[in-house]
Amino acid sequence: MSSPDYDCIVIGAGVQGSFTAYNLAKNNKKTLLLEQFVLPHSRGSSHGQTRIIRKAYDEDYYTHMMEECYQLWSQLENEANVKLYRRTGLLVMGPEQGDYQVFKSTLERNKVPIVILPREEFSQHIPHVNLSQGNAALVDTTAGVLYADRTLKTVQGQFQKLGGLIKDGQKVIDITPGSVVTVTTVSGVYRANRLVITAGPWANTLLSHTGLQLPLQVIKINVCYWSEKVPGSYNVQHRFPCFIQLESEEAKHHIYGLPSNEYPGLMKICYHTGPETDPDERDRQTDRGDIDILQRYITRCFPGLVPIPAVVESCMYTVTPDDHFVLDHHPTHSNIVIGAGFSGVYVLNMSIVL
């Protein structure tokens, strides 16, 4: 048997794979990061200028994870001398007796700094937003915006400074498990003691080479940007927060948004689900049901926005049946680790050290 070329190969150079490779290199592991597309690209789940970072979740363990994540983001900012995070706060809205209460309890139980916004004072604190009848509101004051594209560039650069190797344009066509794992791409053959698969929507395609399939569904998200009627009304410079609407008249899934920032005068508001799609034919999926939902919601709750999207971009989520991600060793091959089903989550800053 041939000797390994690397301690570890990571397949997939999105946020999860790039941070995994970076942490492996920090732990003196000779690491190869493979990406099927030429970098940078907008074909997966990690592209775009901004994402929300928050401690407001419905499960304690996510809030606990975020404590470490904030420290790791700060550490990376200091290492690279690059600003990756802007604190804006996260406005959480929802029916008082629904998921809102679960989020509120999780935040209070974990002593996360929050501000409760009484209905009679809501408009003083959050102008240009109509709080739905029967809804309550709070602000997770620790939350903010992550600069996504900048983050990917930064962490990949730090990985390379640590001696890591990135090979893009390297679509994987075969994986041969064993004590030394062999990965075959369209351009070469690579061997390592260990393998990490963080391939987002293509996870099951790769796992099929190892005799495993996971209950993953790939969905297309229409990333919509909406014009301000009065410039600056929802601007990050004017301290407008990110927001999440937990339940609404229009839909059962969450609606979320970020203040106008990346496109001047445009606020990003999206629906946290979408139609199933084939990741290799994403743009053939033309369902706009989520946009219809957003138009009705924005008309009712964000009167300062034009309720017709000015820009629509595409992203993909990979989801599991219970919406919790998979992070585990392969059941048959213990030297293969799988990270999948992150449902659009950008903020976990995954650190797999093998």
UniProtKB/TrEMBL annotation:
Residue ranges that the Swiss-Prot or TrEMBL entry lists as coiled coil: none
Catalytic activity: L-pipecolate + O2 = L-1-piperideine-6-carboxylate + H2O2 + H(+); sarcosine + O2 + H2O = formaldehyde + glycine + H2O2
GO cellular component: peroxisome
Pfam families found in the cross-reference section: DAO
Keywords from the UniProt entry: FAD, Flavoprotein, Oxidoreductase
Enzyme Commission number(s): 1.5.3.1, 1.5.3.7
GO molecular function, one term: flavin adenine dinucleotide binding
Entry keyword Glycoprotein: no
Family per record: Belongs to the MSOX/MTOX family.
Protein name listed in UniProt: Peroxisomal sarcosine oxidase
